[in-house]
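For the sake of transparency, this paper describes our internal protein records without simplification. The record that follows is passed on verbatim for readers who wish to inspect the format:
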Amino acid sequence: MESVLDTNKPATGKPKWLRVKLPTGKKYTELRGLVDKYKLHTICTSGSCPNMGECWGEGTATFMILGNICTRSCGFCGVKTGRPETVDWDEPEKVARSIKLMNIKHAVITSVDRDDLKDGGSIIWAETVKAVRRMSPGTTMETLIPDFQGIERNIDRILEVAPEVISHNMETVRRLTREVRIQAKYDRSLEVLRYLKANGAKRTKSGIMLGLGETEEEVIQTMHDLRNVGLDVLTIGQYLQPSKKHLPVKEFITPDQFKKYEEIGLKLGFRHVESGALVRSSYKAQKHIL
């Protein structure tokens, strides 16, 4: 079914289902205090994630490595683009200490793209997983990785440290990839996910955003493409514009439509499908190791 909206015009006015309750609870308050006291860096806080209270209450948090400047300039992403700083080789230990201090049960680790580095940052990635395992052996991990330009040796470094979940986001449908992700390629991302599964990844995961002008047919085709490379877990959420410089929201997807995608995904054979307006890549991440 094609979207009935004129996709050349931005959507206006957030609907009521996008309203978020302020995070509360004892666990959230404790973790917030630790983050502020020790100046710990989590994507949860810096990205103002709508699910922060819920995730922290369940002992899950997301950490970004390799700096906060990306070598790519995706049209949807609020991370700064430019020349990144030099690699901080102490970062794996710093992240591991943060996870231990916060007593995190399940950590999601992500990063900017580092196309300026020969290894794409994959050595720091692997060392971070190892450091977390040394300091918090009971903590499980999801690594939300970039595409590493499809270079197998760099992907192999992630496979070698065997996190419980390896995730790489498609972000959007094939037709919109050039506009939304600019330096990324739809088929390259699919190949990364296929390679991960074919080479021993315990659990693979990807996410897409809706509301950028895609049609229902295109979303379902993307879901088929992801199942065809053996993907286990899929997250589907609403795109929200980080600033006026970024791509506009073309459509606010209804809760019923998100539910429909969830049902389709489960019928296709995904182990888990998280589909909803406020769903983000790490939403209910602790469930996805099961």
